[in-house]
Amino acid sequence: MRERILPTHYFHVVFTVPHELNLVMLFNKKRGYDILFKASAQALKTILGDPTHLGAKPAFTSVLHTWTQKLRYHVHVHSIVSGGGLSPDGQSWVASRPDFLAPVKVLSRVFRGKFLDLLSRAHADKEKPLLLRGDVAHLADRDEFDRLKDRLYLKEWVVYAKKPLRGPLAACKYFARYTHRVGISNSRILSVADGRVRLLARHSAKGGTYLGMREQSLDAEEFIRRFLMHVLPRRYTRIRHYGLTAPGNIKTLIPLARTLIEEAAALAKPVDEEQRDTEPPPDPSVCPKCGGRMMVLRIFDPERRDPFDTS
Questions:
Q1: Which end of the chain is less congested by CB atoms within 10 angstroms, N or C?
Q2: Where are the domains of the chain?
C-alpha cells in the first residue's frame, strides 16, 4: 500500500451493512461479502466519477471487517480513498477539497441501491440460490424477500467519510490492524476458567463517546460462537484495490497520476515565489486594516528595561 500511495490527501470511508441482513450475510459469507465489496466500490466510482461531484477516477483500497470489540457480527468495509482522481482524458489530476470528498448521504443512497440490486439478483439466481435457513428461511419466498428489500430502501444506511488525521501513511497503519488479525487478540483475553471467558472490550456511549476498556465475561460456548462468526471462507481475499490502484493500473495509471500531482504542485510554487519577489514588503507604519499611518510619539532606548521609567 505504501508503494501505491499517491502524494495527495486521503479520506477514510466506511460502508456498513444493516443488521437486518446479518443472518443473510452469515449464511452466505462469500457471496454476501463479494456483494458488499462490489456495491461499495461501484458507489465510490459512480459518485466520484460524476462531474457534479469530482468527475475523476480515484485510487482506493478496501478491507473487509466483520467484528466489534465484543465480537458481535457487524459487517462493513474500510476504504482509503484518494482526495482526487485522474481526469477522464487522463491529462490532469482533479483534486478534491482537503476537507470534503463527496456528500455522504448521496454516497449512502447509491451504496444502498447497488447493494440491494446485487442481493436481489443473487436471490433470483436459480442455479446458485442464496442459503436461507433458521430465522431467515421465510426470505426464500420472493414476496417476503421483496418486503424486506422495500423496508431496507426506506432506511438510511450507515456510510461515513473522514480525512485521516495524520495523513495517508497513518491510514495504511490503521488498515494494517485489520488486514491479518482475527476477531480478538490474545492480549484482550484475561482468563479462561470454569467454562467462562473473561475479556476486555471497548465501551462507548450511545453518542459514540469512548468510555474506556471494560471487563466482560462470556460463557465459553457463546465466546466460541461469536468468534467463529468471523472466520472467513477459505482463501477469501479481504483486501481489494480499485480504480487507479487496481492491479492492472499499478504500472501505468499510478505513475501517471503521481507525475501529474507533482507537476501541479511544481507549477503552483513558482507563482507564489514570483508574487513574493514582485510585491513590496508591507510598510510597518501603516495599519493593515484601516490604512492609517502610525504616529511616532516617542522612541525608547532598547537598552532600558522599563521605557516608561524616567527616573
A1: C
A2: 10-183+230-265, 185-229
